[in-house]
Amino acid sequence: MSSLEVISGLFARKGVRVRGERLIKVYRNGPLEVQALRGVTVDFDPGKMYVVMGPSGSGKTTLMNLLGGVDKPTGGLVFHGSKRIDTMSDTELDDHRLDYVGFVFQTINLIPTLTAKDNVELPLLFKKVPKNVRENRVIRLLEAVGLGDKATYKPGELSGGEQQRVAIAVALANDPPILIADEPTAELDYENAKKIIDTLHSLALQHGKTVIVTTHDPRVAVRADRIIRLEDGVTKGEYTPVELEEAYTPTKPKEDTGVYSLANIVRARLARVNEEIEELQRKMKRGEMGIEEAFDRYQDLSKQKRALEDLLASIGG
Ligand SMILES: Nc1ncnc2c1ncn2[C@@H]1O[C@H](COP(=O)(O)OP(=O)(O)O)[C@@H](O)[C@H]1O
Ligand SMILES: [Mg+2]
Fold first, then answer.
1. Which pTM does this prediction carry?
2. Distance from Cα 131 to the centre of ligand 1, integer Å
3. Which of 92, 128, 188, 315 could cross-link 192 (Cys pair, CB 3.0–4.6 Å)?
4. Which residues line ligand 1 (CB under 6 A)?
5. Surface-to-core class of residue 74, CB atoms within 10 Å of its CB (0-12 exposed, 13-18 middle, 19+ buried)
6. Nearest Cα residue to 153 out of 130, 186, 120
7. Alpha helices for the chain (secondary structure H)
8. Which of 34, 60, 180 has most ligand 1 atoms within 8 Å of its beta carbon, as the pocket-test mutant?
């Protein structure tokens, strides 16, 4: 991954400021209405890795889709640098997105029948990059994410972490100024998650890209330069990892019991995970749950438990 920095000229375009202004998003399903975003104003500057953190359903994916031009807001404005994108026509927006924004998703979206190389080549084909330039760039991109030797592998022949690195190479194919990753580490173990986050971080730090990552994994959040908290469709503040802890540590212990300190939040989550593990074991013993389902759930809970314990240790809890 450190090879990202030595491959000169691959990532020549610097980031641009991404701005969402008073963003509102309402989803309508027949008579039902969901207000996913309720007036969000946020700025993301190049050269820093931003993490948008919030519980499931808080509007993270919706916000990424609006900022990246995948979807249009019900109200509010979206800027990429000085370009306003929410008023572009669908075709204009498609072209702009292909050129300007790289996306990485939780569910790795590679085409399973194509090799790593061919997956990375696709965005270049869409952009009508000449063949000789394409081939050279594809190999260098795969080298940049540490997969130069696996160019001819298909996704099914690669590990989850490797697949996600191919997905990053795909996202970077057209050297976009903006990189948006929606829970890119959710399905990875800690070691692989760390590699992905380090790569995203170096794209911001060393290549000056605008990098926005969503997560609900506190281990990912602590590696951010800035953390934006989203709750129920509104932003609750912007912090460095240290400020986040300070902001939620009460200055007047008498009036505030301190339940909002980061360490206490982590402790409370850990307690809940432990309860869930116990409940799972009870259900398994009573035969109320299939062994496969229980195993998957158990793996997931253990992963969360280890993550929370690591984080607690790292913040001195
Ligand atoms: N296409 C959709 N149609 C209807 N409701 C949606 C749609 N997408 C998201 N929502 C709702 O909007 C809210 C925010 O969702 P989302 O942005 O996916 O949150 P997060 O990524 O933080 O989990 C949720 O209540 C979700 O159910
Ligand atoms: Mg989401």
1. 0.78
2. 40
3. 188
4. 27, 29, 34, 36, 54, 56-62
5. middle
6. 120
7. 60-67, 90-100, 116-126, 131-144, 160-172, 190-205, 218-221, 241-247, 262-285, 291-314
8. 34
CA 143 to chain centre: 22
Instruction: Measure the CA–CA gap between 38 and 23, rounded to whole angstroms.
Output: 7
CA neighbours closer than 13 Å in the CB half-sphere of residue 281: 8
List pLDDT tens digits, range 242-271.
Answer: 777 666 555 544 344 445 567 777 887 788
Among the listed residues 308, 222, 220, 316, the one whose alpha carbon sits nearest the alpha carbon of residue 265 = 308
Question: What count of residues does the chain have?
Answer: 317
Distance CA 273, CA 281 (A): 12
DSSP 231: E
Instruction: Answer for the pair 6, 169: CB distance below 8 angstroms, yes or no.
Output: no
Amino acid 157 reads E
Query: C-alpha dihedral over 88, 127, 165, 104, to 10 degrees?
Result: 10
Each residue of 215-248: pLDDT tens digit? Answer: 988 778 888 999 999 999 999 989 888 777 666 5
Higher pLDDT among residues 296 and 302, named by residue = 302
